Amino acid sequence: MAEHVVVGGGIAATQAAETIRKLTKTDTVALVAEEERPFYLRPLLADFVARRIQEERLWRNFEATAAANNIRLVTGRKATGIDRGQQAVLLHDGTTLRYDKLLVATGVKPQPPDIPGVGLDRVAAFSSYVDALQMVRWVGDARNAVVIGRGLQGVELTRALRLCGLAVTMIVPDESPWFPALFQVKGELIEQALRERGVEVVPLDQPTELVEKDGRVAAVRTREGREFPADVVGFALDQRACTEFLVGSGISLADGVVVNGQLRSTDENVYAAGDVAQIEIEGKRHPLGYGWLRAMRQGEAAGRNMAGERVEVETGDETEAQALYGLSLLARWG
User: Fold this and answer.
1) Which of 27, 71, 200, 331 is 20–30 Å from 13 (CA)?
2) CATH superfamily of domain region 3-109+240-323
3) Are 48 and 334 in contact (CB under 8 A)?
4) CA dist., res. 255 & res. 15, Å (int)
5) CA 64, CA 333: separation in Å to the nearest integer?
6) Which of 3.10.450.50, 3.90.870.10, 3.50.50.60, 3.40.50.620 is the CATH number of 112-237?
7) CA 117, CA 122: separation in Å to the nearest integer?
8) What is the rounded distance in angstroms from the CA atom of residue 65 to the CA atom of residue 78?
9) Which residues, other chains included, contact 287 with Cβ-Cβ below 8 Å and sequence gap of 6+?
């Protein structure tokens, strides 16, 4: 009987745990999640902020699925390290979980810029339920918002705040709020759509200071000498793979956990899936993060491989990326 441990609370983690259980009826499966109540639908966070859906629609009842399938849930616990010799995951409360096969599916976290005022009230990133809950509270009496960032999270947060009736400025450090180098979708198409919907897009600029008034953020000052009023500021900039607990383990880390086409790391008993996985095939590394569907498929593939199969994952499908992040994304404004 093998012992499987999955670290993470998103779709890659839950999909892997379910897949392992389907293929192995006697092995143990444990899932460790840092959040007290994980397993929610992150793609719906913007719609929750925009009041298009009720909060209950965010939650995937994985607790019931786990109970029905004998998957042990360890929630509200943070992984702080691994002991590869003992094949054990170390948790912040001093407990350990032994594994024969381990999956790292801890995702990524946004990195706010190191500028004055970043710790002010009504300033947050936008990647979790807690972030979305804060935004819901703040938009009630807000008039102006500034989104600093790019990509899917930046565009989705901009959409949410604009649908709440706020005047939104999007400050983009690049030429475009999108990533034309990664996807077939043209950046100018996204920018045009944002402008048509009343968003002020400010490319090629960066924040240098968040201005305070009465203990809250009041404005954003930029490198180019501009100042934009802001009752709410959201960051959607660079993201860092959540691999801190693997530092010093000897497992190869780059922008994430370096894995092969079967999602196996440089330790044959440790796998990674989702945004935290840095896939390297024939010496070529593929970019982190292709969204919800890809994380789900990687979770399934990792689960199958941990259960003894040999499954290769697909990487960098631009057609899929366009379907996920292109026209369907713009249609979400309707």
Assistant:
1) 331
2) FAD/NAD(P)-binding domain (3.50.50.60)
3) no
4) 23
5) 33
6) 3.50.50.60
7) 11
8) 22
9) 182, 316
SS3 224: coil
Q: Count CB atoms within 10 A of the CB of residue 292.
A: 17
What's the gap between Cα 260 and its chain centre?
Answer: 21
Return the residue matching tokens 């530092």. Answer: 247
Q: Both tokens of residue 230?
A: 């802001």
Torsion 324-287-200-156 (CA) sign: positive
Give how far the C-alpha of residue 73 lies from the chain's centroid of Cα atoms, to the nearest Å: 21
Q: Would you tell me how many other CB atoms lie within 10 Å of the CB of residue 170?
A: 27
CA terminus-to-terminus distance, the chain: 51
- What are 221's two structure tokens? 């000052």
Enter the pTM of the model: 0.89
- Nearest one of 262, 326, 269 to 300, comparing CA atoms: 262
Q: What secondary structure letter does DSSP report for 92?
A: T
